[in-house]
Specification:
4-stranded mixed beta sheet; 1 helix; mainly beta
């Protein structure tokens, strides 16, 4: 097992980018604390810390839209995770497959 503590030297929460294993599509970003990361490592399914509800949540436990983990990578600073998953159903609570569906207009650099 990995040293969970090394990921929490800078903050009590770390971002976890969730990516679909088969397509590479980014599905969502959520936050983990020590306990949710430990549960994720132990179960093979994603667990997060809800900043709004102030509680642990197992993604898909109520909806059935589970995220089975296929790979986990830490970034170069040990403060962000990239988690590849097999997504069952929608990743977003809105029912969209990914949470990233709102286009933002911007000026393109030339």
């Amino acid at each position: 097992m990995i040293d969970v503590e090394k990921y929490f030297k800078k903050s009590e929460l770390i971002p976890a980018v969730i990516q679909e294993e088969s397509t590479g599509e980014v599905l969502m970003l959520a936050y983990m604390n020590r306990e949710s990361l430990q549960k994720t490592l132990e179960t093979g399914y994603t667990w997060f810390w809800s900043r709004s509800r102030q509680e642990l949540w197992n993604k898909g436990a109520t909806s059935g839209h589970l995220q089975r983990i296929t790979d986990i990578k830490g970034d170069c600073d040990d403060d962000t995770l990239l988690i590849k998953v097999v997504q069952t159903g929608a990743a977003c609570h809105t029912g969209n497959h990914t949470c990233f569906f709102n286009d933002i207009e911007f000026s393109k650099a030339e």
